[in-house]
Design a protein that fits this description.
Layout: E1 2-15, E2 18-31, E3 35-39, H1 46-53, E4 61-66, E5 69-70, H2 76-86, E6 87-90, H3 102-112, H4 121-131, H5 146-158, E7 164-168, H6 176-193, E8 197-200, H7 204-207, E9 212-217, E10 220-225, H8 231-245
Parallel strand pairs: 3-8, 3-9, 6-7, 7-8
Antiparallel strand pairs: 1-2, 1-4, 4-5, 9-10
Helix pairs in contact: 3-5, 4-5, 5-6
Length: 247
């Protein structure tokens, strides 16, 4: 049973006097527990697709089904409810509240939903252990490194046990070592918690952690690839494929 399914998605944007086709008719399906990376050059439609999948924007045509509900049949309040209960977001720039501690930022989605965070202490400790921040839980964002802040944002995305996590360039603002830690954590959340992840990235090293890589160009999916190798060989396979697609 797919967690997420999109069919014939089209989206245009007005750029001055011209209309630009951001997506030209995309079909996309994600199974439970799958880790999918979306790659493509700038302007290929990667972020547009992710925003549509997360209900942050609406397609001009096409339909998205998430948590067995068609988003096109829902009003804005209902879509907000879907996002709050079924989607976790990880952004490139962390988006942590500077006045809150790490654990308070992690618990924030529960507070917004009117839930008592005291009932989720076991889940909090589980996630702090997953991201390796047990001893940094009382620190505020300005007391944490970029990699540690991104680990907080991952724990925040997972606190509600969402159906799917959408990650937009989660390593794009990090050094290579911190990026590797973040990708290992996302991979671990799939393997140990059966978490479903869709990630936009320009980085082949990050994409090498995924089960499947989808390549976009000019608003269309031009190739899908499930790596056969692991580690460095998987990274090389993806680089070779990117080179061939750009020829």
């Amino acid at each position: 049973m797919p967690v997420l399914e999109a069919s014939s998605l089209k989206k245009q944007y007005q750029l001055g006097k011209q209309k630009v086709d951001a997506l030209g008719g995309v079909d996309f399906l994600v199974e439970a527990g799958e880790f999918v990376a979306i790659m493509g050059p700038s302007g290929s439609g990667k972020s547009t697709l992710l925003h549509l999948l997360g209900g942050l924007d609406k397609p001009d045509q096409g339909d998205i089904t998430l948590a067995n509900q068609r988003l096109s049949l829902l009003n804005d309040t209902q879509i907000t409810h879907i996002r709050r209960h079924h989607i976790g977001f990880v952004f490139q720039f962390f988006n942590l509240l500077p006045t809150l501690t790490a654990e308070e930022n992690i618990l924030l989605p529960l507070l917004i939903d009117g839930k008592d965070p005291r009932k989720y202490q076991n889940r909090l400790f589980q996630l702090l252990s997953l991201v390796g921040l047990e001893d940094r839980r009382k620190h505020k964002p300005d007391q944490l490194s970029g990699g540690e802040q991104q680990r907080v944002s991952i724990a925040r995305a997972l606190i509600t046990s969402p159906k799917i996590v959408l990650a937009d360039e989660p390593t794009g603002n990090l050094d290579s070592r911190s990026g590797q830690i973040i990708m290992s954590l996302l991979r671990k959340s799939c393997d140990e918690f059966n978490q479903t992840i869709v990630m936009v990235t320009h980085d082949a090293r990050a994409a090498a952690y995924a089960d499947r890589v989808v390549f976009l160009r000019d608003g269309l999916i031009v190739h899908e690839y499930s790596p056969k190798e692991k580690g460095v060989e998987r990274f090389k396979e993806i680089l070779d494929l990117i080179e061939k697609l750009n020829e």
